[in-house]
């Protein structure tokens, strides 16, 4: 029996690190996950253990290469953004993998924005709100001024996905999905690096930008396989939708954050949009994706706990609570408006079903405003929702009612980020056409007997 041709995808999240093998039908035939104990940087702040991650890549690859039932044709990576690896001339990291949650020095921030035209000017140009260390370019700026001797020794500045690729190829490259992800580095108006990258002497340390679908020969021993250059995870998760759907759409990716992504909105960001937490990502074909964000998943988690505690119920029941149009009607007539559910007193609800429906109404009202920010000025025909809220019947029904002129679907797909990283190099490992059933859709009609 001949070995099954597969692609190996490393999907590196902040918490879980996973390895998947996909066959030519994009079915997962092998899966392995790991979690590493964090280490700390020189200031004692928690950060990724880059050495554990490096060893895990090599150990995992050695393991799958020993499996005679699979033939690894290609390898690719998706990983979280806003994280740099500073590589010396010997190919080894010079610093810890600094955490993007680390507080940014106020004085250094003030120095940067004073030098380059102010916060509004930089934000508009780079299509990103001011986010401190989450603007990963500012991590580079910080390293230059706080550790100039280390900065001088840097041979290559690599975002995390490209560092992982570099481990297997020895060839440093840059990728637009990482460079264009709220880094403060990319000038979206001129479609090149921002001027400060050149003026601060950083440009010479950045490897050339390579197209996301390119592959390189591998140095790490194995069969004759090729290695992709890696992708920023949010951009990777959008790829299956861009490959399968060509009519304008919005993807609402739900989790702790609910992010509305519109790849068909090419209007420049405004100051008001930036102040409403809008930004632009860069999709794998080098085009901007306007996005807006809400902290809805976190709020849902906290308020569900509050409801369960108040009504003395088990919070698990809310995961599968059915949509009830009559409850919605009653709430519309009995509940005054509020900025958020957090401001509501639970004594005003007859039971936890009412309270939970009101929570979702309030979250949807916020979601309407957030999604509208990236919807304006585009001819979007469909909204896809993936992640946690895609399985929430109340959320999906109310979202469909809120956008009656747009088709609303819940979308389910096993490991969208990893699938995206496999799809972008499809022709390098897969002899078959891309299947049209990668994404499972469920339609929610706006033809309900109530409004919100």
Layout of secondary structure:
Elements: E1 4-12, E2 17-22, E3 28-34, E4 39-40, E5 46-47, H1 50-65, E6 70-79, E7 84-87, H2 106-115, H3 119-126, H4 136-146, H5 148-153, E8 156-159, H6 160-169, H7 176-179, E9 186-187, E10 192-193, H8 195-199, E11 215-217, E12 226-228, E13 231-232, H9 233-244, E14 249-254, E15 258-262, H10 271-275, E16 278-282, E17 288-294, H11 296-311, H12 325-334, H13 352-375, E18 382-387, H14 393-402, E19 407-412, H15 416-423, H16 426-429, E20 440-444
Parallel strand pairs: 1-6, 6-12, 6-13, 14-18, 18-19
Antiparallel strand pairs: 1-2, 2-3, 4-5, 7-8, 9-10, 11-12, 14-15, 15-17, 16-17, 19-20
Helix pairs in contact: 9-15, 11-13, 13-14
Protein name: Carbohydrate kinase
Keywords: Kinase, Transferase
InterPro entries: ATPase_NBD (IPR043129), FGGY_C_2 (IPR049382), FGGY_N (IPR018484)
Structural class: alpha/beta
Number of individual domains: 2
Largest sheet: 7 strands, mixed
The fourth-level CATH homologous superfamily of the largest domain is ATPase, nucleotide binding domain
From the N-terminal CA to the C-terminal CA, the straight-line distance is 59 Å
CATH fold name of the largest domain: Nucleotidyltransferase, domain 5
CATH class division of the largest domain: Alpha Beta
- What's the helix count? 16
Model regions low in confidence, pLDDT < 50 over at least 5 residues? none
Shape: globular
């Amino acid at each position: 029996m001949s070995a099954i041709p597969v692609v190996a995808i490393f999907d590196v999240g902040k918490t879980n690190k996973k390895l998947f093998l996909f066959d030519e039908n994009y079915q997962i035939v092998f899966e392995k996950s790991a979690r590493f104990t964090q280490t700390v940087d020189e200031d004692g702040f928690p950060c990724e253990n880059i050495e554990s991650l490096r060893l895990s890549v090599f150990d995992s690859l050695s393991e799958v290469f020993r499996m005679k039932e699979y033939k690894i044709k290609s390898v690719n990576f998706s990983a979280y953004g806003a994280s740099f690896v500073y590589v010396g001339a010997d190919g080894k990291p010079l610093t810890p993998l600094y955490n993007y949650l680390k507080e940014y020095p106020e004085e250094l921030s003030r120095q940067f924005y004073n030098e380059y035209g102010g916060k509004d000017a930089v934000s508009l140009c780079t299509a990103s709100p001011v986010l401190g260390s989450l603007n990963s370019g500012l991590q580079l700026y910080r390293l230059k001024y706080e550790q100039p001797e280390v900065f001088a020794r840097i041979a290559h500045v690599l975002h995390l996905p490209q560092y992982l690729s570099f481990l297997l190829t020895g060839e440093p490259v840059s990728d637009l999905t990482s460079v264009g992800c709220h880094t403060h580095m990319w000038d979206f108006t001129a479609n090149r690096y921002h001027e400060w990258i050149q003026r601060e002497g950083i440009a010479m340390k950045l490897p050339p930008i390579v197209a996301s679908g390119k592959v390189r020969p591998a140095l790490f021993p194995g069969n004759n396989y090729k290695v992709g250059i890696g992708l920023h995870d949010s951009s990777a998760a959008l790829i299956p939708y861009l490959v399968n759907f060509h009519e304008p759409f919005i993807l609402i990716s739900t989790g702790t954050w609910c992010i509305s992504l519109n790849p068909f909105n090419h209007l420049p960001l405004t100051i008001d949009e930036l102040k409403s937490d809008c930004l632009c990502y860069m999709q794998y074909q080098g085009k901007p994706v306007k996005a807006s964000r809400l902290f809805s998943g976190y709020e849902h988690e906290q308020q569900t706990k509050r409801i369960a505690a108040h009504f003395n119920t088990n919070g698990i029941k809310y995961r599968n609570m059915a949509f009830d149009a009559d409850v919605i009607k009653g709430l519309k007539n009995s509940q005054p408006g509020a900025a958020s559910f957090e401001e509501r007193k639970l004594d005003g609800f007859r039971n936890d079903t009412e309270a939970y429906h009101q929570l979702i109404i309030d979250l949807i009202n916020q979601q309407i405003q957030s999604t509208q920010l990236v919807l304006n000025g585009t001819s979007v025909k469909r909204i896809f929702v993936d992640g946690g809220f895609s399985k929430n019947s109340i959320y999906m029904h109310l979202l469909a009612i809120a956008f009656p002129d747009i088709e609303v679907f819940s979308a389910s797909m096993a490991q969208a980020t990893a699938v995206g990283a496999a799809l972008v190099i499809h022709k390098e490992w897969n002899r078959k056409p891309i299947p049209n059933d990668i994404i499972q859709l469920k339609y929610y009609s706006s033809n309900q007997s109530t409004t919100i």
